[in-house]
Design brief:
321 residues, alpha/beta, Rossmann fold, Alpha-Beta Plaits, 2 domains, six-stranded mixed β-sheet, four-stranded antiparallel β-sheet, 11 helices, 13 strands, binds adenosine-5'-triphosphate
Length: 321
């Protein structure tokens, strides 16, 4: 896991780049009768790459909108490098790539980037923004002749052009095919390797596993898990221990410490444990002839299901009743 803590120092943009990149406390937002964000506290350090995960309707987009100052919270506050979101956006310290956002119909990609660059204090050159987004070949392309995936990469270039210290991406690869997605993340590496802060909302768990230092799971407007990928996996479902145990007795395996679940077929034992070291030691003490032992972590996708499963069940029940 990469954890890069380089910050950019005090900026001329009225934002303090030495403190916390994002500081959120007690954030709450209702959409009519729906509590979309329900008391979120979150601190993100400069240089962190954080994935925001959660099922549909968890409150991710509402949270992202409040971080960007597009939506006002009902209560609580957001600070970006110590400043109000609106000020951080105006100063170019934070930029976003959202799922939607019209591109100018009668402009080429290069012209659009030039226009956005002219609004900022110390922008990248158009050529550099195109290079970093990996779309130099699209400079003369009218925006009306871009595929869905290309439009997303143009939105990425538009977000980069202010040379922001903090980038927010709301499901950035949703419209991209596998190859484009890979190229996109490759170009993101350049950005994160230079010590910038990134928060991205995604439904692709493998993207969170591969690119984030930290994952935050939201459910029903609340943060239900927050940590390094490995920590969140452990929190959700522990580890799986497999072994061949001649003469095994199920009740004896169930009685071992930290055992959450047991499956036995002939002499093959599968144990889900919240503390695999403790379970393994006890298993070997109780069954000294155990062999072919294997301990594996669960995937982030299984952790995701475990952490968000009950809300989906709640929703299914609400629909049925
Ligand atoms: N403008 C709105 N008016 C009414 N309800 C809204 C509005 N925007 C969001 N909601 C509701 O607020 C809750 C949170 O929605 P939000 O879009 O923030 O979730 P999300 O995690 O981004 O979902 P998804 O993964 O589907 O994009 C949902 O129940 C949604 O229906």
């Amino acid at each position: 896991m990469r954890r890069n803590t380089t910050s950019r120092g005090i900026g001329e943009r009225g934002t303090d780049h030495t403190g916390t990149a994002i500081d959120i406390s007690g954030l709450r937002k209702d959409h009519g009768p729906v509590r979309a964000v329900d008391g979120v506290d979150l601190g993100i350090a400069p240089g962190e790459v954080m994935a925001l995960l959660g099922p549909n309707g968890a409150g991710k987009s509402t949270l992202v909108d409040m971080i960007l100052g597009l939506t006002r919270p009902d209560s609580g506050r957001v600070r970006i490098f110590g400043a109000e979101p609106e000020r951080a956006v105006r100063g170019g310290a934070i930029a976003a790539m959202l799922q939607t956002g019209a591109l100018l119909d009668d402009a080429t990609v290069g012209e659009m980037l030039g226009m956005v660059a002219s609004l900022h204090h110390a922008p990248l050159t158009v050529r550099e923004a195109l290079r970093r987004a990996g779309i130099e070949d699209l400079v003369k392309r009218p925006s009306t002749r871009l595929s869905g995936g290309q439009q997303q990469r143009v939105r990425y270039a538009l977000a980069l052009v202010s040379d922001p210290a903090l980038l927010l991406l709301d499901e950035p690869t949703a419209a991209m095919d596998v190859g484009t997605r890979r190229e996109f993340w490759h170009s993101m590496r350049d950005y994160t390797d230079s010590g910038r802060t990134v928060v991205f909302a995604t439904h692709y768990l493998e993207e969170a596993e591969e690119f984030a230092d930290r994952v935050v799971f939201m459910k029903s407007g609340r943060i239900v898990a927050d940590g390094a990928v490995a920590e969140v996996r452990a929190l959700a479902a522990g580890r799986t221990l497999r072994a061949t145990v001649p003469g095994v007795v199920e009740s004896a395996v169930r009685a071992l410490p930290a055992v959450a679940d047991v499956g036995i077929r002939h002499d093959e034992v599968v144990v889900v444990s919240s503390d695999s070291d403790t379970t393994l030691r006890a298993l070997l003490s109780r069954f000294p002839h155990a062999r072919d032992i294997e301990v594996t972590g669960v995937g982030l996708d299984e952790a995701f299901v475990a952490l968000t499963g009950d809300v989906q069940r709640d929703q299914a029940e609400a629909v049925r009743s």
